[in-house]
Amino acid sequence: MNTHFPVTYSILSVRTLKTDVLPDYNLGDIADCKFYMTGFNDTFIVKTTEGSTYYLRIYRLGWRTLSDIEYELDVLNHLNFKGVSVARPLPRKGGSFIWELSAPEGRRYAVLFTAAEGKEISYDKEPKLMAFKYGKAVATIHNAVQDFTSPHIRFHIDMDHLIDTPLRNIEPILSPRAEDWAYVQRFAGTVRQRILELPADNLEQGFCHGDLQGYHANVDGNSNLTFYDFDGGGYGYRAYDLAVFKWCARLKKQEQVWWEPYLRGYREERFINDLDVQAIPLFICARHIWHMGVHTGNASDWGFGGLSDPYFDERLQWLQSLETDYLK
Fold first, then answer.
1. Which residue of 144, 175, 207, 233 has the fewest CB atoms within a 10 Å radius of its CB?
2. Predicted TM-score of the model (pTM)
3. 275 with 127, same domain?
4. pLDDT along the chain (328 residues), means of 10
């Protein structure tokens, strides 16, 4: 028998990160390192005696492959080279960006990122102006990655990623509610068919952030946006990248306020085809399936307690609302 009981997920020691990992970066003296938050990955906030702040991300086992991570870092370095303000990875003293750490559950990867300048984006004041600026900034990202390439393989934001895999994750938990599970399957099947019939091959594709829901950006004193958390990004449909913003605005009951200035800001910097605009409501539907799949697919680490009847009742009401507005 092993000396220690096997684990599926662990939080790495702050003390050891300070003594064994952080000294391999040219940061100067470390004033503090704290476990900041968990989610898809674990994040530690690092502060130096000179007042600089950094974020150390420890990727969760099985969430991203090494190739996925290398692709993500290639995107960030490309955007930084193009002058787009992003939280970028910092190299170790030997030049590599990625640590391989032997955690109790297996090999995990770590990357240190710069902090985004300014404060977290807010729509409390002048929401239309902020949505307009956000749309312009998203277009700037899409413009900058038009010539992006990477030798590394990463998942695609396609029908399998948005619909098929989420359904496989949802089924074991929702299938006891047979009628509701059948409805989710029908809803997802309709969305999939409608996207493919556009036809999907005529939609613009390229690198997408994957989670530009109106946040994941800080704003400095000059109203410049710095984006972070590209962990959900990959090659996919640009209409989906735009749909995520409208999806979030809808959930916050701000769709009528945020969407028009956002799209106008985007169009000020970048052309978008009518077919891609037509596809946005369908990708809002797909986003909702994906979101349910994320919760159910990560429950083994995050816990099954939140996946209760009230959770599914609320999500099904959202699907029915989307069906009424976008599919009928």
1. 175
2. 0.95
3. yes
4. 83 96 95 96 97 97 97 98 98 96 96 96 96 98 98 97 98 98 98 97 98 96 95 98 98 97 98 98 98 97 96 98 96
